[in-house]
Amino acid sequence: MQMVSTDIAIVGAGGAGLRAAIAAAEHNPSLRIALISKVYPMRSHTVAAEGGAAGVIKAGDSLDDHFNDTVAGGDWLSDQDAVELFVETAPKELTQMERWGCPWSRQEDGHVAVRPFGGMKMERTWFATDKTGFHLLHTLFQTSLKYPPIQRFDEYYCIDLVVIDGRCEGVVALEMRTGKLILFQAPAVIIATGGAGRIFPFTTNGAANTGDGMALAYRRGVPLKDMEFVQYHPTGLPGTGILITEAARGEGGILVNKDGYRYLQDYDLGPPDPWPRKKAMELGPRDRLSQAFWQEQQKGRTVAWPSGDVVHLDLRHLGEKKIDARLPLVRELSSTYENVDPVREPIPVRPVVHYTMGGIDTDINTATPLSGLFAAGECACVSINGANRLGSNSLTEILVFGARAGRAAAEYRAGNDDRPKESELRRQATKPRSRIANLMQGDGKEQVSVLRREMNTAMESGAGIYRSEDSLQSTCETLEALCRRYANLELQDKSNVYNTDLIQALELGAMLDVARTIAVSALGRTESRGSHQRLDHVERDDGNFLTHSMARFQEGNEPQLKYKPVTITKSQPAQRVYGGAAK
Amino acid sequence: MSRETIELVVFRYNPETDCEPAYQRYQIPYHHDWLVLDALNYVKDHLDRSLSYRWSCHMAVCGSCGMMINGEPTLTCKAFVRDYADSIRIEPLANFPVERDLIVNQDDFMSKLASVKPYIIDTDDVPLSEGEELQTPAELAVFDQYTGCINCLLCYSACPQYSLSADFIGPAALTLAHRYNIDSRDDGFRQREERVGSDDGVWQCSFVGACSEVCPKGVDPAAAIQQGKITSAAHYFKKHLMPWSDS
Fold first, then answer.
1. Domain end position, chosen among B104, B123, B145
2. Residue A233 appears among annotated catalytic residues
3. Is B23 domain-assigned?
4. In this structure, what CATH number is given to the domain that contains residue B225?
């Protein structure tokens, strides 16, 4: 097996991975950094983020306000030391992106402009029209080209971590172009592979978001934290799940049901006027808005649309000029994919799986419990997002914690000069080799696409916006059966060059493992908090569940669940208040 | 006319088993709201798992799924089957070496992009603590359109010059070089000009404008390159006729 010797291996080259690579290269230009990704950096799903990135910059705003909004938005499940650090670092990171050329939208006086976002008390979301993720990703990617220490390995799929004597010492990856396995020897490894939305059938996530990095860490004993918390974004296009940004409501858009009624006022988010108003109505948090849709649907007050029930997102009162200046992508997407021009008609929307709040357990420095392994971005759980992430905190999170991971890994590398013997490294690499061989030679009857569809269906029906013991139990059983059937896969494609049948099989394996942590963690949490709503346990239960769930891998078995206390510094759990009474 | 099925005629090539490419036909159900990408995914999931192609976002922003549809460079996630006749021909992007099936080799673009230094080169070095650099909406508007490139490479596929001359830096990379050159925060023009104004740069463009016609994001690389020629010429004359000048 070919071996690449490097100082830091970064798995994933989206926003968090690129930011980590640059931070490591700046921290110590003599390091060798391998940036390994299954897609070219600019294809990573950061590209699809739209509305903006939160960071306190305007007069009248404060770090305390950003902290309080984030902690309440997360229903007090966030670790508050991490949130303090996050809000404090956010403006610096966003300013750094400005210096690197991000085309932030501007005020007339040349200062960066900010817009309101859901659950945020003040305008603090920096934006580049409604293509903020796209611009951040391309700015980071293009900027990364000026750092010689960063060596890219585009279209390499990571199969396993190399762990020797309790320390992470590298990764094994499949070069998709040739089918060769490559052993990356690296004393420090950062996982930055993004989310796992493709576990669900209806998602804003691209095909790449299959939870690969979460599964890598999990199978090597690192717990996945708070996996039951899956965010439904309230406004996706009904046929495709394409995201219509929250910025559409930040700019003044309203949500109405089939009677033209702003139904959010019936769910403790009103009164509707004056509008727009922060932390009220359409600018409430995403969990509450998606739950309100479900309730409206139960009452038969949603709109029937060919591809399912919807409500209407009405932007017409904003006018063509403002829509084109602030929301050009919303207009393009809605016109292209739903044949609806928001200047003239309301956009049909419904909730859609968007974000995994949970992820690889890390501390505030992005270190995982496995020595030498770090994680940042959506694949990780620090946790700043708690039980529900506020819109525009995630783009900032990939910058703040991506940079932190790069520096932490560089420092860790500096203190670790012992290298394992090459023979031991190679011995470690035999397991992934046989895994690939087994998959390629499998002669079972099962197909990737069939199992994937059944997994998707089980997750939506049992672990969606509202859950119950029965629904989750049934999902857990289906997933267990799917894992057994997975061992019986047959690949039709036996070739080495760009074998996407094989890659999809590996992705499915990762998704099944991650899906089980979602379902089992959701079953274990017998309370309702943030995005996790139990029809059979409707109240929040701080006495028993002001804790992070920790799902640990057990070979051939269900994940083992344990709990870990939440870190509280200055905000004691209280009622989440939105609408007229919000502060 | 109601259609129940349509036919995809798909370019197939596996370097390990095939001496030369061949076309394979697939009959698939017709859905009014399907994209060409959805049709390919149907083939992959139901008919032929050995078909290889790239895709991810399904919303025309990641730039992965560019292919030739009936001979035109197109994002398959932005093209609806309803807009084509009953048989649709799908091939890998023209002007690139084919790796397998619909997957092309993009190394050439990646190295050309890096060669034009597509990042801010700022000689002032003001500390970060002094906050953001001011830029008015009017200054942003000068280059904003050229920031929209998603690197999908349709423009290289459409470019007659790139098909003749593999050394040509090409539309997307030249557009991004220009985007930084005209950003009010940048001082890197002279560094980029060595490459952009070279024999491989803007002067190779014969201004056919095919790049702008196929661009799925309305970036207009042809305009960027023409503007690039003007600044490049001005720089040339200044350098040679007024060597004492500083720009």
1. B104
2. yes
3. yes
4. 1.10.1060.10
Question: What is the extent of the structural domain holding B35?
Answer: 5-104
Q: Is A301 a catalytic residue?
A: no
How far B226 CA lies from chain A's nearest CA (Å)?
22
Domain ranges for chain A, please list them.
234-352, 426-546
Q: What is the structure's pLDDT at B169?
A: 98
A101 and B45 within 8 Å at the Cβ level: the answer is no
Q: What is the least distance, in Å, from the CA of A267 to any CA of chain B?
A: 32
Domain tally, chain B: 2
Per-residue model confidence as pLDDT tens digits over B131-175? 999 999 999 999 999 999 999 999 999 999 999 999 999 999 999
| B132 vs A408: CA distance, rounded Å | 26
The answer to whether residues B109 and B93 touch, using CB atoms and an 8 Å cutoff, is: no
Which of A92, A106, A244 is best to mutate for the B interface (most B CBs within 10 A)?
Answer: A106
β-pairing, A114-115 with A359-361? unpaired
Which of residues 196 through 215 in chain A touch B, CB cutoff 8 A?
Answer: 206-208
Give the strands of the sheet with B87-91, arranged side by side. B22-29, B5-12, B87-91, B66-69, B72-75
| Interface touch B101/A498, C-beta < 8 Å | yes
Residues B45 and B113 in one domain: no
pLDDT digits (tens, 9 = 90+) for B229-238: 998 888 888 8
Subunit contact B17:A495, Cβ cutoff 8 A: yes
Q: Is A554 left (phi over 0), alpha (psi -120 to 50) or beta?
A: beta
Residue of A nearest to B64 (CA): A43
Residue B166 lies in a domain: yes
Nearest to A268 by CA among A583, A582, A565: A582
Whether residue A98 and residue B133 make contact (CB cut-off 8 A), yes or no, is yes
Query: B57, B65, B184: best mutation site toward chain A, by most A Cβ within 10 Å?
Result: B57
Q: Does the predicted model carry a pTM greater than 0.95?
A: yes
Q: What is the CATH number of domain A426-546?
A: 1.20.58.100
At residue A298, the 3 state secondary structure works out as helix
User: A443 to each of A359, A497, A500, how far by Cα in Å?
Assistant: 34, 20, 18
A369 in B contact zone (CB under 8 Å): no
Q: Which fold has domain A234-352?
A: Flavocytochrome C3; Chain A, domain 1 (3.90.700)
Would B40 be classed as within a structural domain? yes
Whether residues B204 and B84 fall in one domain: no
Mark whether B34 and B54 lie in a shared domain: yes
Last residue of a domain, one of B88, B104, B120: B104
Compute the count of residue pairs across chains A and B with CB atoms less than 8 Å apart. 155
